[in-house]
Amino acid sequence: MTSRPFGVGLTLEDDRQALFILRHHRRFPPASHALVEQISERILILASAAREPMDDGLVFFHGREDSSFSAMATTPAFANLTLVRHPLVQHKMTLLRDRRTPTKIFKELVDEIAMLMAYEATSELSLDPVTVETPLEQATGFQVSGKKLTLVPILRAGLGMVEGILRLVPSARVGHVGLYRDHDTLEPVDYYFKVPSDAAERDFFLLDPMLATGGSAVSAVSSLKRAGGVRIRFLCLVAAPEGVRRLGKAHPDVSVYAAALDRELNSQGYILPGLGDAGDRLFGTR
Ligand code: PRP
Ligand code: URA
C-alpha cells in the first residue's frame, strides 16, 4: 500500500530520477527517515510512508512547480515572471550573448534554448485521461486537453524560436504577429496579424527573444486578446525589468517565461548586458 503526501503523484520514472539526484549528492538517506533538504533552488522532501519496495514517495518542489526537476525560479518583485535556470539554458545563453558567435550558431542556439524553455512552459498544460491498448492490455494514459497549442512568433526575431518548439510539440499551430519598434519613439508599429479563428479555445505561446521596453509584447498580447485569445504565455530569452513590469501591468494574467532577467535598458532601448539586436543577429542583417 502506498501513501503519498500532499496528493502529488510521481511516475516510477520520476522516482528513479529523484533517487539518482539524491545519490548524485551523496545524500541518499535511510529509507525510513523524513528529510527536508534544500539543494540550491530545489527543496527535496522525503516523506516516510508505508510503501512498496520500489517506491520511495519523494516529492519535489521548486518555484511554482511540483512536477519536474528543472531549476525554475520566481521572484517576488515580478509575480508574472518565471526564470528558466536550467544549466543547459544558462550555458547556451552565455554563448548566445557572446558577440563572436556567428549567425549560424546564434540561430541554432535560439532554437535549442526555445525548445528547453518550452519544456518548462508546457509543464502546466492540463491533461485528460485516455485509455490505450498496449500489445498486452489496456493502459490508462493522458493527453493534453483542448485544442492544439498555438505558437505566435512576433516578427522577425520570434521566428527563430518556432522550429525548436515545434520539435517538442509537432502538432502545434503557428500564427504570426508583425511588429517593429520605431527607432525614435521605441513604440511598436503593427503590420501583420494572423492566428487561428477559434482563439478562445486555444493555449497561446507568444514568442520573442527580447522583452525590452515591453511595448511590442503589450501590443501583441492586446491583438491576441482582441482576436479572442484568453490563455496566453509569453516566452522570451532576455527580459529587462522595465518590460516585465510594463507587461505585468497591462496584462497581469499573462505569465512570462525568460531565460534571463537583465539589468536595465540603455538610452536606445537596448537591453544591458543583453545580446544586441536579436533580429539582426538571427538573420545576419545589420
Ligand atoms: C525587437 C525584438 C522585440 C522588440 C522588443 O524587435 O525582437 O520584438 O524589439 O522591444 P520592446 O520590448 O522595446 O518593444 P525589432 O523591433 O527590432 O524588430 P525586428 O525583429 O523586425 O528586428
Ligand atoms: N530588441 C533587441 O533585439 N534587442 C534589445 O536589446 C532590445 C530590443
Shape: globular
Order of helices and strands: HEEEEEHHEEEHEEEEEHEHEEEH
How far from one another are the termini?
64 Å
Cα gyration radius (Å)? 21 Å
* Small molecules held by this entry: 1-O-pyrophosphono-5-O-phosphono-alpha-D-ribofuranose, uracil
Counted beta strands? 17
| Beta-strand fraction estimate | 25-35%
Q: So how many helices?
A: 7
Poorly predicted tracts of residues: 1-70
Going by helix content, strand content and strand pairing, the class is alpha/beta
Mean pLDDT: 81
Note the main attributes of this structure.
single chain, 286 residues, alpha/beta, ten-stranded mixed β-sheet, three-stranded antiparallel β-sheet, 7 helices, 17 strands, 27% helix, disordered N terminus, binds 1-O-pyrophosphono-5-O-phosphono-alpha-D-ribofuranose, binds uracil
Give a verbal description of the structure.
The protein is 27% helix and 30% strand. The chain has 7 helices and 17 strands. Helix 2 runs antiparallel to helix 3 and helix 3 packs across helix 4. The N and C termini lie far apart (64 Å). The N terminus is likely disordered. Bound molecules: 1-O-pyrophosphono-5-O-phosphono-alpha-D-ribofuranose and uracil (URA).
